[in-house]
Amino acid sequence: MSERSDxxxxxxxxxxxxxxxxxxxxxxxxxxxxxxxxxxxxxxGWSQRRLAEAAEMTQSAVARFEAGGTVPTLPVLExxxxxxxxxLVVQLRTPxx
Length: 97
What we know:
It holds the Pfam family HTH_31. By secondary structure, this protein is mainly α.
């Protein structure tokens, strides 16, 4: 039980550091985008190499992206969407009350 409380205390300290919340949000977004691309790729029965060829990327770049290891640019997202036959939608919304 002390291990869990130690982890929680560490997380609280880290999240209180300047910029931590923003970095966490960016990492979460990159992970969610990667999961979405992976799901679309797998629905089509494609390998990472097949997607990389269609999007004019390397297989390792696709792997990093799917793992949430990179925050993509809009042109990269457009290439992936086009390769997958998907529509890229970028929105800014006010938070729900």
